Amino acid sequence: MGRIQEAFERAEREQRAALIIYLCAGDPDLATTARLVCAAADAGADIIELGMPFSDPTADGAAIQKASERALAGGTTMRGALDVVATVRKTHDVPVLLFGYYNPVLSYGEVKLANDAADAGADGFLVVDLPPEEAGTLRDAAVARGLDIVPLIAPTSHEARVQLAAQTATSFIYYVSMTGVTGAVGLDLDAASKRAAELSARVGRPLALGFGVSTADDVRGVAKHVPGVVVGSAVVRAIASAATPDDAVTAVSALVSSLAAGTSRS
């Protein structure tokens, strides 16, 4: 059993949802990203989505787009993101899911990336624009090295896509709460959570709901229904607002701690 599956099972035993936090590698810099991953884990994050910066992050809203821009402007590469994982792995066992887009994966090479990610201590891939119908070769390379593949489904996903995602997933499925980009506000998270819970029970895989979750109250509402909850833009905004890297670490620690307090179902 991999670290990601263990994290979901631990959260279930503790009668809470697993808290998944997004951080962008290289924002504000690679050394600080490693500190941010550790701080988020210490504050209660169960899984870290580590963004692989990309110049055209079409599924992301302004906050995460700007984080990618800052990271790329600072010279962050795929190798740099993997080095962050290796640094974290010296002290922490928190699962790290590499999150991004297929172009950098293709450019790096699927097999080489799977091998290098496994050697660094990563736990899997979530590639936003790689549908399960096209994920076979990356999935094969990842599974061969003990890494997970996390597919996405959305409210518009038809039944055949949902079933294929369930077959492709090796740990959990990411449920996009709405048709749009990350960082949206004013969503009906209660309705989205109930839909995700129904799908999770039906396909026999944990689902984690992301997009539009930013506060402890949001987390509390989602956690009542769904095995996992993802917060990204709010964390990135906290980093962007910090005056120094030390301030960013302090701000993320405080934010994740407050979010973690909302994951309980009791």
Q: How would you describe this structure in keywords?
A:
globular; 9-stranded parallel sheet; 266 residues; 14% strand; 12 helices; alpha/beta
Structure description:
The chain is an alpha/beta fold and 266 residues long. It has helices at residues 3-13, 30-43, 62-73, 78-89, 102-108, 110-120, 136-144, 159-168, 189-203, 216-223, 233-241, 245-260; strands spanning 18-24, 47-51, 96-100, 124-127, 148-149, 152-153, 173-176, 207-210, 228-231. The radius of gyration is 17 Å and the shape is globular. It starts with a helix and ends in a 6-residue tail after the last helix.
Low-confidence stretches: none
Residue-averaged pLDDT: 93
Task: Write down the oligomeric state.
Answer: single chain
Written as H for each helix and E for each strand, in order along the chain, the element string is HEHEHHEHHEHEEHEHEHEHH
Dominant shape: globular
Query: Could you give the count of β-strands?
Result: 9
Task: Specify the structural class.
Answer: alpha/beta
Taking the sheet with the most strands, its summary is:
9 strands, parallel
Rg from Cα: 17 Å
Strand-residue proportion: 5-15%
* Helix content class: 40-55%
- Distance N terminus to C terminus? 27 Å
Question: Strand order within the widest sheet?
Answer: 5-4-3-2-1-9-8-7-6
Continuous helix count = 12
